[in-house]
Design a protein that fits this description.
The structure is a single chain. The chain has helices at residues 20-27, 40-50, 83-94, 112-116, 129-142, 168-172, 181-184, 188-207; strands spanning 30-34, 54-58, 99-103, 121-124, 146-152, 155-161, 216-221, 226-231. It is of the alpha/beta class. The chain has one domain: NAD(P)-binding Rossmann-like Domain (Rossmann fold, 3-Layer(aba) Sandwich). α2 (40-50) runs parallel beside α3 (83-94). The longest helix is centred in the C-terminal third of the chain and has 20 residues, at 188-207. 42% of the residues are buried.
């Protein structure tokens, strides 16, 4: 019988929920987080702390004062700084064993595939529908699972899509119109809840765990405290 695998002390609180083998597996995984704002900053934080070995943090924007109400990585000192760079610095400060690659770029039709190539999972923390479509299209072409998350006011939704699952178009319709957050606002606790579910989904994808939110859309309503789901066909 082999010697039981030791878990580094920094991950000792993960034991029972994650095995030593699963912790070691996460250290070898690669994730791209697209968008480092309200959702993305928290997803990056969670994945760095749980020990995902490589994080590609992608965002072409800089922090502005209106981000201070909800975005974990946005401090008054960070105003005007590139979100991707701040995210990478945060990862280095939290977990030096995790490699964080900052990519200062907006995901578009021409660069989506290149930005998302070479990872095991993509986490979509974008705030516009057009970029979401290009990310989804690239993931289908690359054969990479993608975890979607979106918030609007008190409401949020999450879904994990593997290649061949119900398409992104079935979830969001088309690219016309504005995202609902433009009209309903963005609240901090909604971002925290949705990003937590996204991070959990990403870990389940990386470890091939059951119970992923596939072919269904989790609908979160914090105003009346309800979690519902819609089957996707």
């Amino acid at each position: 019988m082999g010697t039981p695998m030791e878990v580094p002390n920094r991950y000792i609180r993960n034991v029972e929920a994650l095995s030593a083998q699963e912790s070691a597996s996460l250290a070898a995984k690669r994730v791209a987080v697209v968008g480092c704002g309200g959702l993305g900053g928290l997803v990056v934080e969670a994945l760095a702390r749980i020990g995902v070995g490589y994080l590609r943090v992608i965002d072409g924007d800089v922090f502005e004062e209106s981000n201070l109400n909800r975005q974990l990585l946005c401090t008054e000192d960070a105003l005007g700084r590139e979100k991707a760079q701040v995210a990478a610095e945060r990862v280095a400060a939290v977990n030096s064993t995790v490699e964080a690659e900052p990519v200062v770029a907006l995901l578009e039709e021409g660069n989506a595939r290149g930005l998302l190539d070479g990872v095991d999972c993509v986490v979509d923390c974008l705030d516009n529908l057009e970029a979401r479509f290009w990310a989804a299209h690239a993931c289908q072409e690359l054969g990479v699972p993608i975890v979607y998350g979106a918030i609007a006011g008190w409401f949020g939704q999450v879904c994990t899509v593997h290649p061949g699952d119900v398409s992104f178009v079935n979830i969001y319709g088309d690219t016309e119109g504005e995202s609902q957050h433009v009209h309903l606002g963005n609240l901090p606790f909604t971002a925290y809840v949705v990003s937590a579910v996204q991070a959990a989904e990403a870990v389940k994808v990386l470890l091939d765990r059951p119970g992923q939110i596939r072919n269904r859309l989790l609908m979160i309503d914090l105003l009346d405290g309800s979690f519902d789901e819609v089957e996707l066909r």
